[in-house]
Design goal:
five-stranded parallel β-sheet, alpha/beta, Rossmann fold, binds thymidine-5'-diphosphate, 210 residues, 13% strand, 8 helices, 53% helix
């Protein structure tokens, strides 16, 4: 993965569906903005051309093979990196992304692609400074989706598949991956997240509001 970049920080939220990534990311963004940091909160799949095509697939997943699906996620990420992530990092901002290439390795890996090949296909994407990997039993995360959001499961969210995804997430090892138990209360999870981010800022000598 590429390591060359400006003075910003790249922080990715990862984990199976229903772990609370989106809520925790929004709260972290508010906290950092309150400290005077310039924050870019973003997500994958994006709202761009390929992200929209991916979302359309939720409705009818049988329409493409795992390889075609992988290709769409990679194209979406190329655009995301070029148009959003790289410029924000070059401008010294803190980028918070709701999912990144670990999701591709885990989800498309669970769908039959080789996770190592998926990582290799993402070598264009800057390596994150921190991955906040929210962990939870897939059964519990699916129950959360049903109860809290009242949502029907999309095809990416079936239990068996999600168990494979969780196993792959559990198998990834990088020094910048921080695993956080997302079954803890929201405030406790947020406190752990903030601590990890403040430690990172300290370690990198990153200062906000200057
Ligand atoms: P999700 O974060 O749940 O988006 P939203 O809630 O905004 O619709 O992501 C949608 C699904 O896409 C999720 O089930 C995981 C899947 N996904 C992949 O399979 N590969 C990827 O590379 C990414 C980024 C997501």
């Amino acid at each position: 993965m590429r390591t060359m970049r400006g003075r910003g920080l790249l922080i990715a939220f990862e984990g199976v569906d229903g772990t609370g990534k989106t809520t925790q990311l929004a709260r972290l963004a508010d906290f950092l903005k309150g400290m005077g940091c310039e924050v870019v909160a973003t997500r994958e799949p994006t709202d761009g051309e390929y992200g929209r095509r991916i979302r359309a697939l939720y409705l009818d997943r049988g329409r493409c093979t795992p390889e075609e699906e992988l290709e769409l996620f990679i194209r979406d990420r190329r655009q995301h990196v070029r148009d959003c992530i790289e410029p924000a990092l070059a401008a010294g901002r803190i980028v918070l992304t709701d999912r990144y290439y670990f999701s591709t390795a885990a989800y498309q890996g669970a769908a039959g692609c080789d996770p190592d090949q998926v990582f290799a296909a993402n070598s264009f994407a800057p390596e994150p400074d921190l991955v906040l990997l929210l962990t939870m039993e897939p059964k519990q995360s699916l129950a959360r989706i049903r109860e809290l959001r009242g949502e029907q499961l999309n095809d990416f969210e079936q239990l068996d598949q999600l168990r494979r995804v969780a196993r792959l997430f559990a198998s990834f090892s990088r020094e910048y991956i921080r695993r956080i138990d997302a079954s803890a209360p929201l405030d406790a999870v947020q406190a752990e997240i903030r601590q990890a981010v403040l430690e990172l800022m300290d370690r990198k000598g990153y200062r906000c509001g200057t």
